[in-house]
């Protein structure tokens, strides 16, 4: 028999969650996402999502497009500073707008529904973080089994699919379990970075400096390729905005979000620069460019005793970033559906497990499709354009919102100079990349703009056939998945 709470909101569970993050008295079985993410899980969520495949994949892309060891290290440091500026802007946005959904919500509140829908549209097309990281996970699991030969691409993608399947199952099963897994994997991945940094720095101190001679040799420098070097570096720092996807589940977000963001970005920037110094200490630039698995090559040089375990640690690091992606992005789909820009089924919560099950399941086939047809570096360049375009638009919207609504509560306020510098640099990189790699970035831009007619045909004024609408909102699907609309307002 269909329970009444599956299909309608109950008047007895309409208490709101307070601004301080503590819940008022509600019935224990009310369907809603709980506020149970404290400071440590928040820090683990950011670091665990940022530190994934990027630090093990991007060094090759940064060096390839910067042209020298010295300039590549400078790019890594500048990417850390730029990412920290952006993270601080998102700390202001996350404490000013209390809804989950990250830049989708901020674009909706500042620049309007069309821009926000294009953000949703681009996420559905590119599925950025999950695709890259899952491919890197498969690469590091399979690569050691076939060294020195190249790993079979089909096997890499099969293992990647298994990793995605595990993470999807975890996030469908339990929010708290997924959060605990994130904390555990974050500690593991930081241990992996320390394991790389210590022998590299020790070798450098002991006089192994030959790879740092003439490090600013500019013979291979191409200004048109430099934005792509920043893309690869910024990809490695990607994920600092993912805590904002789950704002409604963070305890005391006014305090937790800024603290978690500042601490996490300082730690990640320092670690990333030191890891790259360690790489170059043990490998020449040419050797790094020839390696498909940089950390594995490094381990073979500096960590012979524990070298077989390095790929495992790297794979677990990628798994942590993948888990963070599948934890955060479904919340954006949920908010988009709640705002009427996606099918209503995606806004529903599992009535027993309190997880956004439909939104998580929706991502799985999309990730698999993109994964099957993509190659890692091509995917990074192709989708980074869209990602940074919307981040720049979100911070531009923040600046505009400040002047339009000066009295709007802003518990955390970033210096205006930081927001302006970050926004200008983002637009500059986005614009220059159209010139540097017009095929990939132009295609990304075109696919993003293709969402405009979709918006006007399906959201602004729906021309969707009634039978299709019934498919997405069918009560039988709701009963099968055991999901219902939220019964408690969490923002």
TrEMBL record:
<protein>
    <recommendedName>
        <fullName>Cystine/glutamate transporter-like</fullName>
    </recommendedName>
</protein>
<feature type="transmembrane region" description="Helical">
    <location>
        <begin position="355"/>
        <end position="373"/>
    </location>
</feature>
<dbReference type="Pfam" id="PF13520">
    <property type="entry name" value="AA_permease_2"/>
</dbReference>
<feature type="transmembrane region" description="Helical">
    <location>
        <begin position="154"/>
        <end position="175"/>
    </location>
</feature>
<keyword id="KW-1133">Transmembrane helix</keyword>
<feature type="transmembrane region" description="Helical">
    <location>
        <begin position="187"/>
        <end position="206"/>
    </location>
</feature>
<feature type="transmembrane region" description="Helical">
    <location>
        <begin position="69"/>
        <end position="91"/>
    </location>
</feature>
<keyword id="KW-0812">Transmembrane</keyword>
<feature type="transmembrane region" description="Helical">
    <location>
        <begin position="310"/>
        <end position="334"/>
    </location>
</feature>
<feature type="transmembrane region" description="Helical">
    <location>
        <begin position="379"/>
        <end position="400"/>
    </location>
</feature>
<feature type="transmembrane region" description="Helical">
    <location>
        <begin position="125"/>
        <end position="142"/>
    </location>
</feature>
<feature type="transmembrane region" description="Helical">
    <location>
        <begin position="412"/>
        <end position="435"/>
    </location>
</feature>
<dbReference type="InterPro" id="IPR050598">
    <property type="entry name" value="AminoAcid_Transporter"/>
</dbReference>
<feature type="region of interest" description="Disordered">
    <location>
        <begin position="1"/>
        <end position="21"/>
    </location>
</feature>
<dbReference type="InterPro" id="IPR002293">
    <property type="entry name" value="AA/rel_permease1"/>
</dbReference>
<feature type="transmembrane region" description="Helical">
    <location>
        <begin position="37"/>
        <end position="57"/>
    </location>
</feature>
<dbReference type="GO" id="GO:0015179">
    <property type="term" value="F:L-amino acid transmembrane transporter activity"/>
</dbReference>
<feature type="compositionally biased region" description="Basic and acidic residues">
    <location>
        <begin position="8"/>
        <end position="21"/>
    </location>
</feature>
<keyword id="KW-0472">Membrane</keyword>
<feature type="transmembrane region" description="Helical">
    <location>
        <begin position="441"/>
        <end position="459"/>
    </location>
</feature>
<feature type="transmembrane region" description="Helical">
    <location>
        <begin position="257"/>
        <end position="280"/>
    </location>
</feature>
<dbReference type="GO" id="GO:0016020">
    <property type="term" value="C:membrane"/>
</dbReference>
<feature type="transmembrane region" description="Helical">
    <location>
        <begin position="226"/>
        <end position="245"/>
    </location>
</feature>
